[in-house]
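Batch manifest line 382
LIGAND: pyridoxal-5'-phosphate
JOB: complex structure
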Amino acid sequence: MVRFSDRANNIQPTGVRRMFDMAGDDAVQFGLGEPDFQPPEIAIKAFTRAMEDGKNKYTTTAGLPALRQKIAETWHHLSPSLDESNVCMTMSGTNALLDVFLALLNPGDEILLPEPYFPLYPTDAVICGGNPILYPCLFQNGFVPTIKDLENLVNENTVAILYNFPSNPTGGNVTSDQRDELVDFAQKNDLWIVTDEVYDRIVYDTEHVSFLGAGYDKVIMINSFSKTFAMTGWRIGYILSENDEAMGHITKMQYYVTACSNDAMQYAVLEAMENASDYPAQMCEEFKARRDLICDRLNAMPGVSCHVPTGAFYVFPKVEVPGMNSEEIAMALLKGGVLCSPGSAFGEAGEGHLRFAYTIGREDISRGMDRVENILANLRGD
Ligand SMILES: Cc1ncc(COP(=O)(O)O)c(C=O)c1O
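JOB STATUS: finished
ARTIFACT:
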C-alpha cells in the first residue's frame, strides 16, 4: 500500500502554476511574476570567476560575511547598528519564508496573513504547524488592511502578522503613516511582524516604505535578489532582523532546511550590490512605462477598473462579466491567447479580480490588451 502524509495529500499546486501549465506557446504571458531581464553582466562574470576560483564549498550557515555586511549597510539609513550578525543568507525568499515560519509557529499558533495572498503564505504556515488567519486587503482600501479588520481577528493564539508591501498579487503599497499604524497594531498585541519586502527595489513615484527601523524590535524581514537583480532562477535571498534572538533561531532553521546558500553565487550578488547598484532603478524605469500602459488600457475597458500600483509589477483589476467568476474569465482569456491569473488563485478576497504581471515588453502588452479588450467585449456582449 502506498501511503503519503496528510500534508502532501492536502496541499494543491497553486492556481497560478495550473494556468501556466495550460497555456499554449502563442499566448501573451501575463502569468508568472518574473522580470524579463537578465542579471547584471558583471554578476554573471563574477559567478563564473568565483566557481573557477574554487568557491564551490559549503559556506557557514548564515553565509558570506562580506555579503551580509553589505546587505546590513544598505539598511543603515533605517537601522544604523545593523551588521552581518543581523543577516542570514537563504536560497531565495521562498526558503526564507519557511525558515521564519519554522522559527515562530507552534501547533495551534495563529499567524495573520494578507488576502489576496502570495500563494505560499497559508500553505507554508500549515506545513510549519501554524493556523493561517486571513485579513482582507481590499481594492476599495488601496489593498491595505484597516486596523478594525485586524482587531477583529486577533486573539490569545495570534503570534505573528505578515505584511507584504509592495504586494504580490495586488501591487498595493503603504504610506509611512499606514505603516506606523500597522506597526502600532502589532506592538499593542505583542505580535511578531514578518515583513516580506522582496519588491523593495521595484517602486515607482515614491520611496520604499519599510517596516524595519519603525521603532519595534519584533520585526523580521524576508528579502530576495530574484526581483532586485532579475535572478529568479539563481535562488538567493536573505532574512534580516534587529532581534538577535530571532536571528539565532532562524539561522538554526536554515541549517536544517538547506545548510547554507550557494557559495559562488554569494560572490556574484556581492559584485552586483557593489557595482550594479543602479540596476533595479533602470528596470524600474521600464516597468513604470509598462505599468502606465497596462493601467491606461485596462481602465479604458468597460467593466474593468484598475488601481495604479506604486510597486511590484502586477496589476489586480476588478473585472466584471455578468454570470462569470474570475476563473471562468481567466479561462476564456486563455482560450483567446492571453495568460493571466484568476484573482481567486490568491484567496477568496481576490474573487472578481484578475492578476496581470507586466513582465513582458510594451509591444506584447499592447497585443495582449487588444485581445483582452475583444474577448471581454464579446463575453459582456458590449
Ligand atoms: C511576495 C513574494 N514573496 C516571496 C517571493 C519569493 O521569491 P523568491 O523565492 O524567488 O526569492 C515572491 C516571488 O514571486 C513574492 O512575490
